[in-house]
Amino acid sequence: MKEKLRISGGVRLEGEISVSGGKNAALAIIPAALLADSPSTIENIPNINDVRVVIEMLKWLGATVDFRDNTLWVDPRNVDKYDPPYELATRMRASYYFAPVLLGLFRRAEVPLPGGCDIGARPIDQTIKGMATLGADVQTLGGILIAKADTMTGADIFLDMPSVGATVNSMLTAVSANGTTLIHNAAKEPHIVDLANFLSSMGASVKGAGTDVIRIRGGRPLHGTNYTVVPDQIETGTLMIAAAATGGDVLITDAIPVHMEALSAKLLEMGVNITSDDDWIRVRSNGRFRAVNVKTQGYPGFPTDLQQPLSALLTVANGNSIVTETIFESRFRFLDELRKMGANVRVIESSAIITGVDHLVGSRVNATDLRAGAAMVIAGLMAEGVTEIGGVGYILRGYERFDEKLRSLGAGIEKVTLNTDAY
Ligand code: UD1
Protein backbone atom coordinates (compact mmCIF):
# COMPACT_ATOMS: atom_id res chain seq x y z
CA MET A 1 0.00 0.00 0.00
CA LYS A 2 1.49 3.31 -1.02
CA GLU A 3 0.18 6.78 -0.55
CA LYS A 4 0.59 9.08 -3.53
CA LEU A 5 -0.48 12.49 -4.67
CA ARG A 6 -2.36 12.38 -7.95
CA ILE A 7 -2.49 15.65 -9.85
CA SER A 8 -4.46 16.50 -12.97
CA GLY A 9 -2.37 19.30 -14.43
CA GLY A 10 -3.22 22.42 -16.31
CA VAL A 11 -5.69 24.03 -13.90
CA ARG A 12 -5.22 27.74 -13.09
CA LEU A 13 -5.01 28.38 -9.34
CA GLU A 14 -7.35 31.13 -8.24
CA GLY A 15 -8.54 32.47 -4.90
CA GLU A 16 -7.22 33.26 -1.45
CA ILE A 17 -5.07 31.10 0.81
CA SER A 18 -3.57 31.63 4.24
CA VAL A 19 -0.01 30.69 5.17
CA SER A 20 0.61 28.41 8.18
CA GLY A 21 3.09 29.03 10.98
CA GLY A 22 6.77 28.54 10.21
CA LYS A 23 8.04 24.96 10.41
CA ASN A 24 11.66 25.87 11.05
CA ALA A 25 10.70 28.53 13.59
CA ALA A 26 8.39 26.17 15.48
CA LEU A 27 11.01 23.40 15.55
CA ALA A 28 13.45 25.74 17.35
CA ILE A 29 10.92 27.51 19.57
CA ILE A 30 9.18 24.44 21.00
CA PRO A 31 12.31 22.91 22.61
CA ALA A 32 13.23 26.39 23.94
CA ALA A 33 9.96 26.44 25.91
CA LEU A 34 11.47 23.77 28.20
CA LEU A 35 13.91 26.37 29.55
CA ALA A 36 11.06 28.21 31.32
CA ASP A 37 10.05 27.74 34.96
CA SER A 38 6.34 27.94 34.04
CA PRO A 39 4.01 26.98 31.14
CA SER A 40 3.98 28.66 27.72
CA THR A 41 1.24 29.00 25.14
CA ILE A 42 2.52 29.07 21.58
CA GLU A 43 0.11 29.86 18.75
CA ASN A 44 0.33 29.36 15.00
CA ILE A 45 2.20 26.06 15.30
CA PRO A 46 1.83 24.12 12.03
CA ASN A 47 0.26 20.69 12.50
CA ILE A 48 2.85 18.73 10.51
CA ASN A 49 4.69 15.48 11.14
CA ASP A 50 7.94 17.12 12.30
CA VAL A 51 6.05 19.13 14.91
CA ARG A 52 4.21 16.03 16.10
CA VAL A 53 7.58 14.30 16.61
CA VAL A 54 8.84 17.26 18.67
CA ILE A 55 5.68 17.09 20.78
CA GLU A 56 6.27 13.38 21.37
CA MET A 57 9.78 14.33 22.49
CA LEU A 58 8.38 16.86 24.97
CA LYS A 59 6.08 14.23 26.44
CA TRP A 60 8.80 11.61 26.61
CA LEU A 61 11.05 14.05 28.47
CA GLY A 62 8.29 14.59 31.06
CA ALA A 63 6.57 17.80 29.92
CA THR A 64 2.79 18.18 30.06
CA VAL A 65 1.49 19.15 26.66
CA ASP A 66 -1.76 20.09 24.97
CA PHE A 67 -1.80 20.67 21.20
CA ARG A 68 -4.99 21.62 19.44
CA ASP A 69 -6.09 24.12 16.78
CA ASN A 70 -2.46 25.02 16.06
CA THR A 71 -1.93 26.14 19.67
CA LEU A 72 0.58 24.38 21.89
CA TRP A 73 0.45 24.64 25.63
CA VAL A 74 3.53 23.22 27.29
CA ASP A 75 4.31 22.91 30.99
CA PRO A 76 8.00 22.02 31.39
CA ARG A 77 8.08 21.74 35.18
CA ASN A 78 8.17 17.95 35.31
CA VAL A 79 10.85 17.42 32.66
CA ASP A 80 13.28 14.97 34.25
CA LYS A 81 15.17 13.21 31.43
CA TYR A 82 18.11 14.25 29.30
CA ASP A 83 18.48 11.26 26.96
CA PRO A 84 15.67 10.87 24.40
CA PRO A 85 15.58 7.49 22.65
CA TYR A 86 17.07 6.84 19.23
CA GLU A 87 13.76 5.90 17.55
CA LEU A 88 12.24 9.25 18.48
CA ALA A 89 15.19 11.62 18.09
CA THR A 90 16.24 10.36 14.67
CA ARG A 91 12.80 10.85 13.15
CA MET A 92 13.65 14.46 12.39
CA ARG A 93 16.66 16.68 11.96
CA ALA A 94 15.79 19.35 14.48
CA SER A 95 15.86 16.90 17.43
CA TYR A 96 19.36 18.12 18.12
CA TYR A 97 17.87 21.46 19.24
CA PHE A 98 17.03 19.58 22.44
CA ALA A 99 20.75 19.08 23.20
CA PRO A 100 21.56 22.64 24.35
CA VAL A 101 18.20 22.88 26.15
CA LEU A 102 18.74 19.67 28.13
CA LEU A 103 22.34 20.68 28.77
CA GLY A 104 21.07 23.94 30.27
CA LEU A 105 18.53 22.11 32.43
CA PHE A 106 20.56 19.09 33.58
CA ARG A 107 24.20 19.97 32.77
CA ARG A 108 24.09 16.88 30.65
CA ALA A 109 22.41 15.89 27.39
CA GLU A 110 22.51 12.73 25.30
CA VAL A 111 20.68 13.19 22.03
CA PRO A 112 20.85 10.76 19.10
CA LEU A 113 22.00 12.59 15.99
CA PRO A 114 19.76 14.09 13.35
CA GLY A 115 17.65 12.26 10.84
CA GLY A 116 15.60 14.34 8.39
CA CYS A 117 16.00 14.90 4.68
CA ASP A 118 18.98 13.39 2.90
CA ILE A 119 20.01 16.45 0.91
CA GLY A 120 23.76 16.14 1.26
CA ALA A 121 26.31 15.94 4.04
CA ARG A 122 24.84 17.68 7.06
CA PRO A 123 27.72 18.01 9.51
CA ILE A 124 27.20 19.40 13.01
CA ASP A 125 30.76 20.53 13.70
CA GLN A 126 29.64 24.15 14.14
CA THR A 127 27.02 23.15 16.72
CA ILE A 128 29.70 21.24 18.62
CA LYS A 129 32.08 24.21 18.37
CA GLY A 130 29.43 26.62 19.67
CA MET A 131 28.58 24.49 22.69
CA ALA A 132 32.26 23.73 23.43
CA THR A 133 33.19 27.41 23.23
CA LEU A 134 30.81 28.10 26.11
CA GLY A 135 32.49 25.41 28.22
CA ALA A 136 30.65 22.19 27.42
CA ASP A 137 32.47 18.93 26.90
CA VAL A 138 30.86 17.70 23.68
CA GLN A 139 31.48 14.51 21.77
CA THR A 140 29.65 12.16 19.45
CA LEU A 141 29.75 8.53 20.48
CA GLY A 142 27.87 5.77 18.68
CA GLY A 143 25.65 8.26 16.86
CA ILE A 144 24.77 10.14 20.03
CA LEU A 145 25.64 13.76 20.79
CA ILE A 146 26.83 13.75 24.40
CA ALA A 147 27.32 17.10 26.11
CA LYS A 148 28.31 17.80 29.70
CA ALA A 149 29.08 21.01 31.55
CA ASP A 150 29.21 21.88 35.23
CA THR A 151 29.20 25.57 34.39
CA MET A 152 28.96 27.44 31.11
CA THR A 153 30.35 30.90 30.52
CA GLY A 154 29.48 33.37 27.76
CA ALA A 155 32.16 33.82 25.07
CA ASP A 156 32.68 34.74 21.41
CA ILE A 157 31.53 32.02 19.01
CA PHE A 158 32.82 32.38 15.45
CA LEU A 159 30.80 30.22 13.07
CA ASP A 160 32.65 29.11 9.92
CA MET A 161 29.46 29.61 7.92
CA PRO A 162 26.08 31.12 8.80
CA SER A 163 24.52 27.76 9.65
CA VAL A 164 20.89 27.89 10.78
CA GLY A 165 21.24 24.82 13.01
CA ALA A 166 24.49 25.98 14.63
CA THR A 167 23.06 29.47 15.22
CA VAL A 168 19.96 28.02 16.90
CA ASN A 169 22.03 25.66 19.04
CA SER A 170 24.49 28.41 20.01
CA MET A 171 21.60 30.69 21.01
CA LEU A 172 19.95 27.93 23.04
CA THR A 173 23.26 27.20 24.80
CA ALA A 174 24.04 30.88 25.42
CA VAL A 175 20.80 31.62 27.30
CA SER A 176 21.85 29.09 29.96
CA ALA A 177 25.46 30.30 30.19
CA ASN A 178 26.65 32.94 32.65
CA GLY A 179 27.63 36.24 31.07
CA THR A 180 27.56 37.51 27.51
CA THR A 181 27.89 35.46 24.32
CA LEU A 182 28.48 36.93 20.88
CA ILE A 183 27.61 34.65 17.96
CA HIS A 184 29.58 35.93 14.96
CA ASN A 185 28.65 35.07 11.35
CA ALA A 186 25.20 34.06 12.58
CA ALA A 187 22.43 32.92 10.24
CA LYS A 188 19.89 35.71 9.58
CA GLU A 189 16.83 33.68 8.54
CA PRO A 190 13.37 34.80 9.72
CA HIS A 191 13.20 31.73 11.99
CA ILE A 192 16.36 32.88 13.80
CA VAL A 193 14.71 36.23 14.50
CA ASP A 194 11.57 34.45 15.62
CA LEU A 195 13.52 32.27 18.07
CA ALA A 196 15.21 35.42 19.40
CA ASN A 197 11.83 37.10 19.88
CA PHE A 198 10.51 34.02 21.66
CA LEU A 199 13.52 33.86 24.00
CA SER A 200 13.15 37.60 24.69
CA SER A 201 9.49 37.10 25.55
CA MET A 202 10.65 34.45 28.07
CA GLY A 203 12.84 37.09 29.73
CA ALA A 204 16.16 36.43 27.98
CA SER A 205 18.37 39.25 26.71
CA VAL A 206 18.91 38.61 22.98
CA LYS A 207 19.99 41.42 20.64
CA GLY A 208 21.05 41.57 17.00
CA ALA A 209 19.13 38.58 15.60
CA GLY A 210 18.74 39.16 11.86
CA THR A 211 22.25 40.65 11.67
CA ASP A 212 25.64 38.90 11.49
CA VAL A 213 26.22 39.15 15.24
CA ILE A 214 23.81 38.01 17.94
CA ARG A 215 24.50 39.13 21.51
CA ILE A 216 22.99 37.10 24.34
CA ARG A 217 23.25 37.81 28.03
CA GLY A 218 22.69 34.46 29.67
CA GLY A 219 21.36 33.43 33.01
CA ARG A 220 18.10 31.73 33.75
CA PRO A 221 15.44 31.49 35.12
CA LEU A 222 13.34 32.17 32.07
CA HIS A 223 9.59 32.30 32.44
CA GLY A 224 6.70 30.91 30.40
CA THR A 225 5.21 33.16 27.76
CA ASN A 226 2.44 33.64 25.18
CA TYR A 227 3.82 33.74 21.66
CA THR A 228 2.69 33.50 18.03
CA VAL A 229 5.00 31.85 15.52
CA VAL A 230 5.94 33.78 12.37
CA PRO A 231 4.35 32.72 9.02
CA ASP A 232 6.26 30.07 7.07
CA GLN A 233 8.61 31.72 4.58
CA ILE A 234 9.04 28.58 2.50
CA GLU A 235 5.35 27.70 2.36
CA THR A 236 4.65 31.29 1.26
CA GLY A 237 7.23 30.95 -1.49
CA THR A 238 5.95 27.55 -2.58
CA LEU A 239 2.43 28.93 -2.91
CA MET A 240 3.74 31.94 -4.84
CA ILE A 241 5.55 29.68 -7.30
CA ALA A 242 2.54 27.36 -7.62
CA ALA A 243 0.28 30.34 -8.38
CA ALA A 244 2.69 31.63 -11.02
CA ALA A 245 3.27 28.18 -12.51
CA THR A 246 -0.40 27.70 -13.31
CA GLY A 247 -0.87 31.17 -14.82
CA GLY A 248 -3.04 31.83 -11.79
CA ASP A 249 -4.24 34.70 -9.64
CA VAL A 250 -3.80 33.99 -5.94
CA LEU A 251 -3.96 36.18 -2.86
CA ILE A 252 -1.67 34.76 -0.18
CA THR A 253 -2.63 36.03 3.27
CA ASP A 254 -0.98 35.89 6.71
CA ALA A 255 2.35 36.28 4.92
CA ILE A 256 5.34 38.56 5.50
CA PRO A 257 6.23 40.07 2.10
CA VAL A 258 9.60 41.38 3.26
CA HIS A 259 10.74 37.77 3.89
CA MET A 260 9.98 36.97 0.27
CA GLU A 261 12.02 39.68 -1.46
CA ALA A 262 14.62 37.38 -3.04
CA LEU A 263 11.90 35.18 -4.57
CA SER A 264 9.65 38.10 -5.55
CA ALA A 265 12.58 39.72 -7.37
CA LYS A 266 13.17 36.53 -9.39
CA LEU A 267 9.49 36.05 -10.19
CA LEU A 268 9.22 39.68 -11.34
CA GLU A 269 12.29 39.12 -13.54
CA MET A 270 10.51 36.10 -15.01
CA GLY A 271 7.48 38.22 -15.92
CA VAL A 272 5.18 37.38 -13.00
CA ASN A 273 3.04 40.16 -11.54
CA ILE A 274 3.44 40.59 -7.77
CA THR A 275 1.76 43.09 -5.49
CA SER A 276 1.83 43.10 -1.70
CA ASP A 277 1.04 45.03 1.45
CA ASP A 278 1.69 44.47 5.16
CA ASP A 279 0.57 40.84 5.40
CA TRP A 280 -0.49 39.70 1.94
CA ILE A 281 1.00 38.96 -1.45
CA ARG A 282 -0.96 38.69 -4.69
CA VAL A 283 0.60 36.67 -7.50
CA ARG A 284 -0.76 36.92 -11.05
CA SER A 285 0.72 35.34 -14.12
CA ASN A 286 -0.13 34.77 -17.76
CA GLY A 287 1.74 31.46 -17.69
CA ARG A 288 4.65 32.67 -19.85
CA PHE A 289 8.04 33.03 -18.20
CA ARG A 290 11.48 34.41 -19.02
CA ALA A 291 14.53 32.33 -18.01
CA VAL A 292 16.57 33.66 -15.05
CA ASN A 293 19.75 32.77 -13.18
CA VAL A 294 19.52 31.94 -9.48
CA LYS A 295 22.12 31.25 -6.80
CA THR A 296 21.14 29.96 -3.37
CA GLN A 297 22.42 31.81 -0.33
CA GLY A 298 21.59 32.37 3.31
CA TYR A 299 18.93 34.98 4.08
CA PRO A 300 18.39 37.58 2.66
CA GLY A 301 19.70 35.72 -0.40
CA PHE A 302 17.65 33.22 -2.38
CA PRO A 303 16.74 30.32 -0.02
CA THR A 304 17.95 26.82 -0.87
CA ASP A 305 14.54 25.55 0.27
CA LEU A 306 12.93 27.32 -2.71
CA GLN A 307 15.55 26.29 -5.23
CA GLN A 308 13.78 23.09 -6.20
CA PRO A 309 10.27 24.60 -6.52
CA LEU A 310 11.65 27.47 -8.63
CA SER A 311 13.70 25.04 -10.76
CA ALA A 312 10.47 23.20 -11.55
CA LEU A 313 8.97 26.45 -12.82
CA LEU A 314 12.09 27.26 -14.85
CA THR A 315 11.68 24.03 -16.86
CA VAL A 316 9.01 25.85 -18.90
CA ALA A 317 10.62 29.31 -19.01
CA ASN A 318 11.67 30.72 -22.33
CA GLY A 319 15.47 30.32 -22.68
CA ASN A 320 18.32 28.95 -20.55
CA SER A 321 18.34 29.37 -16.78
CA ILE A 322 21.36 28.64 -14.61
CA VAL A 323 20.55 27.54 -11.06
CA THR A 324 23.53 27.34 -8.71
CA GLU A 325 23.14 25.45 -5.43
CA THR A 326 25.72 26.56 -2.86
CA ILE A 327 24.25 25.10 0.35
CA PHE A 328 23.18 21.46 -0.10
CA GLU A 329 24.96 19.51 -2.83
CA SER A 330 22.34 16.78 -3.23
CA ARG A 331 19.47 19.12 -3.97
CA PHE A 332 19.76 18.42 -7.71
CA ARG A 333 18.87 14.73 -7.43
CA PHE A 334 15.22 15.55 -8.03
CA LEU A 335 16.09 16.81 -11.51
CA ASP A 336 16.02 13.18 -12.67
CA GLU A 337 12.34 13.16 -11.72
CA LEU A 338 11.71 16.39 -13.64
CA ARG A 339 13.44 14.83 -16.68
CA LYS A 340 10.88 12.03 -16.60
CA MET A 341 8.30 14.75 -17.18
CA GLY A 342 10.16 16.11 -20.21
CA ALA A 343 12.38 18.74 -18.59
CA ASN A 344 15.62 19.59 -20.37
CA VAL A 345 18.28 19.89 -17.66
CA ARG A 346 22.04 19.39 -17.44
CA VAL A 347 24.07 19.57 -14.26
CA ILE A 348 27.61 20.90 -14.32
CA GLU A 349 29.21 20.79 -10.87
CA SER A 350 26.97 22.84 -8.59
CA SER A 351 24.91 24.40 -11.37
CA ALA A 352 21.88 23.15 -13.25
CA ILE A 353 21.37 24.48 -16.76
CA ILE A 354 17.67 24.38 -17.47
CA THR A 355 16.51 24.90 -21.04
CA GLY A 356 12.83 25.74 -21.09
CA VAL A 357 10.51 23.32 -22.90
CA ASP A 358 7.02 24.05 -24.19
CA HIS A 359 5.31 21.98 -21.50
CA LEU A 360 5.87 19.13 -19.05
CA VAL A 361 4.06 15.82 -19.40
CA GLY A 362 2.28 14.10 -16.52
CA SER A 363 4.28 11.10 -15.24
CA ARG A 364 4.89 8.79 -12.31
CA VAL A 365 7.58 10.42 -10.18
CA ASN A 366 8.91 10.45 -6.64
CA ALA A 367 9.59 13.09 -4.02
CA THR A 368 13.27 12.58 -3.11
CA ASP A 369 13.09 15.01 -0.17
CA LEU A 370 10.69 17.55 1.33
CA ARG A 371 11.28 20.51 -0.97
CA ALA A 372 11.81 18.25 -3.97
CA GLY A 373 8.34 16.96 -3.22
CA ALA A 374 6.96 20.49 -3.37
CA ALA A 375 8.78 20.94 -6.67
CA MET A 376 7.20 17.80 -8.11
CA VAL A 377 3.77 19.04 -7.05
CA ILE A 378 4.42 22.32 -8.90
CA ALA A 379 5.61 20.37 -11.94
CA GLY A 380 2.45 18.25 -11.76
CA LEU A 381 0.24 21.34 -11.55
CA MET A 382 1.84 22.70 -14.75
CA ALA A 383 2.02 19.44 -16.69
CA GLU A 384 -0.32 18.14 -19.36
CA GLY A 385 -2.11 15.05 -18.06
CA VAL A 386 -1.90 13.18 -14.78
CA THR A 387 1.12 13.08 -12.47
CA GLU A 388 1.44 10.62 -9.60
CA ILE A 389 3.96 11.50 -6.91
CA GLY A 390 5.34 8.93 -4.47
CA GLY A 391 7.20 9.79 -1.27
CA VAL A 392 4.22 11.76 0.02
CA GLY A 393 5.51 11.39 3.59
CA TYR A 394 8.35 13.79 2.80
CA ILE A 395 5.92 16.46 1.65
CA LEU A 396 3.56 16.14 4.60
CA ARG A 397 6.51 16.35 7.00
CA GLY A 398 6.84 20.02 6.20
CA TYR A 399 3.66 21.44 4.66
CA GLU A 400 0.43 21.67 6.60
CA ARG A 401 -2.62 20.43 4.63
CA PHE A 402 -0.70 21.01 1.41
CA ASP A 403 -3.02 19.08 -0.90
CA GLU A 404 -6.12 20.53 0.78
CA LYS A 405 -4.85 24.11 0.45
CA LEU A 406 -4.05 23.67 -3.24
CA ARG A 407 -7.45 22.02 -3.81
CA SER A 408 -9.14 25.06 -2.29
CA LEU A 409 -7.47 27.12 -5.03
CA GLY A 410 -8.92 24.81 -7.69
CA ALA A 411 -6.03 22.38 -8.18
CA GLY A 412 -6.90 18.86 -9.25
CA ILE A 413 -4.87 17.20 -6.50
CA GLU A 414 -5.84 14.27 -4.31
CA LYS A 415 -4.15 11.84 -1.96
CA VAL A 416 -4.64 8.27 -3.12
CA THR A 417 -3.64 4.98 -1.57
CA LEU A 418 -2.48 2.52 -4.20
CA ASN A 419 -2.35 -1.18 -3.53
CA THR A 420 0.96 -1.66 -5.32
CA ASP A 421 4.72 -1.63 -4.81
CA ALA A 422 5.32 -1.19 -8.51
CA TYR A 423 7.17 2.16 -8.30
C1 UD1 B 1 18.10 24.58 8.07
C2 UD1 B 1 16.66 24.31 7.70
C3 UD1 B 1 16.57 23.80 6.28
C4 UD1 B 1 17.27 24.76 5.33
C5 UD1 B 1 18.68 25.10 5.81
C6 UD1 B 1 19.35 26.21 4.99
C7 UD1 B 1 15.66 23.70 9.82
C8 UD1 B 1 15.07 22.63 10.67
N1 UD1 B 1 16.14 23.31 8.63
O1 UD1 B 1 18.82 23.36 7.98
O2 UD1 B 1 15.19 23.73 5.93
O3 UD1 B 1 17.40 24.17 4.05
O4 UD1 B 1 18.64 25.56 7.18
O5 UD1 B 1 18.55 27.36 5.02
O6 UD1 B 1 15.63 24.86 10.17
N2 UD1 B 1 27.16 23.14 7.86
C9 UD1 B 1 28.40 22.68 8.26
N3 UD1 B 1 28.61 22.42 9.59
C10 UD1 B 1 27.63 22.59 10.52
C11 UD1 B 1 26.37 23.05 10.10
C12 UD1 B 1 26.15 23.32 8.77
O7 UD1 B 1 29.32 22.51 7.43
O8 UD1 B 1 27.89 22.33 11.71
C13 UD1 B 1 26.90 23.45 6.44
C14 UD1 B 1 25.86 22.52 5.81
O9 UD1 B 1 26.45 21.36 5.29
C15 UD1 B 1 25.28 23.40 4.73
C16 UD1 B 1 25.35 24.80 5.34
O10 UD1 B 1 26.31 24.74 6.37
O11 UD1 B 1 26.08 23.37 3.58
C17 UD1 B 1 24.04 25.34 5.88
O12 UD1 B 1 23.45 24.38 6.76
P1 UD1 B 1 22.46 24.82 7.93
O13 UD1 B 1 22.11 26.26 7.76
O14 UD1 B 1 23.06 24.39 9.22
O15 UD1 B 1 21.18 23.96 7.63
P2 UD1 B 1 20.24 23.23 8.68
O16 UD1 B 1 20.22 23.98 9.95
O17 UD1 B 1 20.56 21.78 8.69
Instruction: Kindly report the name of the CATH homologous superfamily of the largest domain.
Output: Enolpyruvate transferase domain
Ligand set? uridine-diphosphate-N-acetylglucosamine
Q: What class would the helix/strand composition place it in?
A: alpha+beta
Span of the ends, CA to CA: 11 Å
- CATH architecture title of the largest domain: Alpha-beta prism
Please mark out the parts with pLDDT under 50 across 5 or more consecutive residues, or reply none.
Answer: none
Largest sheet composition: 4 strands, mixed
Overall residue-averaged pLDDT value: 95
> Order of strands across the biggest sheet?
21-22-1-23
Number of strands: 23
Global geometry: globular
Number of helices: 14
Number of domains: 2
Itemize the secondary structure elements and their pairings.
Elements: E1 2-8, E2 14-18, H1 23-32, E3 40-43, H2 49-61, E4 64-68, E5 71-75, H3 86-89, H4 98-106, E6 108-112, H5 125-133, E7 137-141, E8 144-148, E9 156-158, H6 164-174, E10 180-184, H7 190-201, E11 205-207, E12 213-217, E13 226-228, H8 233-245, E14 249-253, H9 261-270, E15 273-277, E16 280-284, E17 294-295, H10 307-314, E18 320-324, H11 335-340, E19 344-348, E20 351-355, E21 364-366, H12 370-382, E22 386-390, H13 392-398, H14 402-408, E23 412-418
Parallel strand pairs: 2-14, 3-13, 9-10, 17-18, 21-22
Antiparallel strand pairs: 1-22, 1-23, 3-5, 4-5, 6-8, 7-8, 10-12, 11-12, 14-16, 15-16, 18-20, 19-20
Helix pairs in contact: 1-2, 1-7, 4-6, 5-6, 8-12, 10-12, 12-13
Bound molecules: uridine-diphosphate-N-acetylglucosamine.
